[in-house]
Specification:
alpha+beta; about 160 residues; 5 strands; Nonspecific Lipid-transfer Protein, Chain A; about 50% helix; globular
Length: about 160
C-alpha cells in the first residue's frame, strides 16, 4: 500500500465510521491543500468540492508535513505525541501559524477517531507490516529503530533480555 493509498483509506474510514469527525475535518481544512511526505513518497492532499483528493504534486499547497515511518509507528503505538514529535524534529511542518495549528488538530482528530474504530487499527497494522523499519519488513518491528539508543542503552536492554 502506497502512502497515497494509506491516507485515502484513512480518510474513507473516517467518513464511513466516524462521520462527525470527518465533518469536523472537512470544516477545519476547507479548501486548503497540504503537501505530505512519508520517507521518500510525496503527495499533495485536499478537499475538492467536498471530496478528499490526492492532488498533483506540483500544485500549490498551504502547508507541508514531513515524517518517517518509524515516527508514525511510534505515534500509532502511543509512544510519541504529535506535538512532541514536531518539537523534537521527528515530524517537520511548514506553514503559517494557523495552518500548523490546523494540521495538529487534523492529526489529533484522525488519531482520536482511530481509537474507536477497528478499521483504523487494521489500517495501522497494515501500515506497520508493509513499511521498512531498519531493514525489517514484518509485523514485528525492530524497537531499536524507533528510539535513539546508544551503546550503553543497548547493552542494558540486552542484559535485561528486552531486545527483539
Amino acid at each position: 500500500m502506497s502512502f497515497a493509498e494509506y491516507i485515502t483509506a484513512l480518510i474513507e474510514a473516517l467518513e464511513t465510521f466516524e462521520p462527525s469527525s470527518f465533518s469536523r475535518l472537512k470544516a477545519l481544512v476547507g479548501e486548503k491543500k497540504a503537501r505530505l511526505q512519508l520517507d521518500d513518497e510525496v503527495i499533495n492532499v485536499g478537499f475538492v468540492e467536498g471530496q478528499f483528493a490526492i492532488l498533483p504534486v506540483d500544485e500549490h499547497t498551504d502547508g507541508e508535513g514531513v515524517m518517517d515511518s518509524a515516527s508514525v509507528v511510534r505515534i500509532l503505538d502511543g509512544h510519541l505525541e504529535v506535538t512532541d514529535s514536531i518539537l523534537s524534529g521527528h515530524i517537520m511542518a511548514k506553514g503559517t501559524p494557523s495552518s500548523l495549528e490546523e494540521i495538529l488538530i487534523a492529526i489529533e482528530l484522525i488519531l482520536e477517531a482511530s481509537i474507536h474504530t477497528p478499521q483504523f487499527r487494521a489500517l495501522s497494522e497494515q501500515f506497520r507490516s508493509e513499511k521498512f523499519i531498519k531493514g525489517t519488513r514484518s509485523n514485528e518491528y525492530d524497537i531499536t529503530a524507533l528510539f535513539e539508543t546508544g551503546e550503553k542503552e543497548l547493552d542494558l536492554l540486552a542484559r535485561l533480555d528486552l531486545l527483539p
